[in-house]
């Protein structure tokens, strides 16, 4: 049997309800910080579940990031989460971005980034304009962000990726599938570096379908009974668990061939 090519994770990125950036996330994780909060808009929309977990990004922080990388009229929160975390993972791996004015691309670097419904924010915005007869005010950016592949496309533009650039969607295993697709592409010698992971928008229209989903008897997909005690809502291993807590964020890895020369700044955190 031929020996499999060894693939390693050399970079991590995170945009989460308990911390933006690996350092802040790790600190919060060790302290047992909860990112679940009460959200009034869910009550206004008559949801059963009024709690959720979304990244606590300040508007100035988002503005600084989008301005730095030339992202304009961003409506998709999941795309922003994915891009912020993706850039962190790229830099964490000791990699650099191509000059935006260059006519070259990183031909041996790819990106397979997953999501379920990252475009829902942009779709919601676009529908509002169409229904009020203001379709001409929509602009081209709305269509770009309405597509699930928007997060990969934006990351590819920021980094300068020239290899496979695509998006997968497989329910609760989207991130895992993304990672395995990246590993397979490297093992097939079609790429040397692949940015993988997934992100999701934190929008009430993403969560609506799950709030109304009955699994069996009186058990719903989203947690109920914790609206007055959000921090107790996420208890998957508890006897009192009664549903999922909706959330949003992004978490990517940078993968590469183990045999490639690496500098000391790159960390191997997992092997396949």
User: Going across the major beta sheet, what is the strand order?
Assistant: 1-11-8-6-7
Kindly report the name of the CATH homologous superfamily.
Thiolase/Chalcone synthase
Strand content: 15-25%
CATH architecture: 3-Layer(aba) Sandwich
Mean pLDDT: 88
Structural Rg: 20 Å
Description:
The protein has 272 residues and is an alpha+beta fold. It has one domain: Thiolase/Chalcone synthase (Peroxisomal Thiolase, Chain A, domain 1, 3-Layer(aba) Sandwich). It is 34% helix and 17% strand. It is built from nine helices and eleven strands. The chain has helices at 22-31, 40-44, 59-68, 77-92, 120-131, 140-146, 150-159, 174-187, 204-211; strands at residues 7-12, 15-16, 19-20, 36-38, 51-53, 109-114, 165-166, 193-200, 214-216, 219-220, 249-257. Strands 1-11-8-6-7 form a five-stranded mixed β-sheet, sandwiched between helices. It has a two-stranded antiparallel sheet with strand order 2-3. Helix 4 (77-92) packs parallel to helix 7 (150-159) and helix 5 (120-131) crosses helix 6. The two termini are 17 Å apart. 43% of the residues are buried.
Write the layout of secondary structure elements.
Blueprint: E1 7-12, E2 15-16, E3 19-20, H1 22-31, E4 36-38, H2 40-44, E5 51-53, H3 59-68, H4 77-92, E6 109-114, H5 120-131, H6 140-146, H7 150-159, E7 165-166, H8 174-187, E8 193-200, H9 204-211, E9 214-216, E10 219-220, E11 249-257
Parallel strand pairs: 6-7, 6-8
Antiparallel strand pairs: 1-11, 2-3, 4-5, 8-11, 9-10
Summarize the structure.
The chain has 272 residues and is α+β, with helices and mostly antiparallel strands. 34% of the residues lie in helices and 17% in strands.
């Amino acid at each position: 049997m031929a020996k499999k090519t060894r693939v390693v994770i050399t970079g991590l990125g995170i945009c989460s309800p308990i911390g933006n950036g690996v350092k802040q996330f790790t600190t919060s994780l060790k302290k047992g910080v909860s990112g679940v909060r009460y959200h009034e808009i869910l009550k206004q929309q008559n949801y059963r579940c009024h709690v959720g977990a979304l990244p606590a990004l300040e508007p100035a922080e988002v503005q600084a990031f989008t301005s730095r990388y030339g992202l304009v009229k961003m409506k998709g929160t999941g795309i922003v989460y994915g891009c912020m975390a993706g850039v962190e993972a790229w830099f964490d791996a000791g990699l650099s971005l191509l000059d935006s004015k260059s006519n070259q691309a990183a031909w041996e670097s790819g990106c397979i980034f997953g999501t379920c419904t990252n475009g829902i924010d942009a779709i919601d915005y676009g529908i509002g304009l169409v229904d009020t007869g203001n379709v001409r005010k929509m602009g081209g950016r709305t269509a770009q962000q309405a597509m699930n592949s928007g997060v990969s496309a934006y990351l590819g533009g920021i980094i300068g990726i020239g290899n496979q650039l695509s998006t997968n969607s497989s329910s609760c295993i989207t991130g895992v599938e993304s990672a395995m697709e990246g590993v397979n592409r490297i093992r097939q010698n079609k790429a040397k570096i692949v940015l993988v992971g997934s992100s999701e928008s934190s929008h009430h229209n993403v969560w609506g379908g799950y709030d109304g989903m009955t699994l069996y008897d009186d058990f719903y997909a989203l947690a109920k009974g914790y609206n007055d005690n959000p921090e107790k809502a996420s208890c998957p291993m508890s006897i009192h668990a009664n549903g999922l807590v909706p959330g949003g964020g992004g978490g990517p890895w940078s993968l590469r061939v183990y045999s490639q020369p690496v500098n000391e700044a790159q960390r191997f955190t997992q092997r396949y």
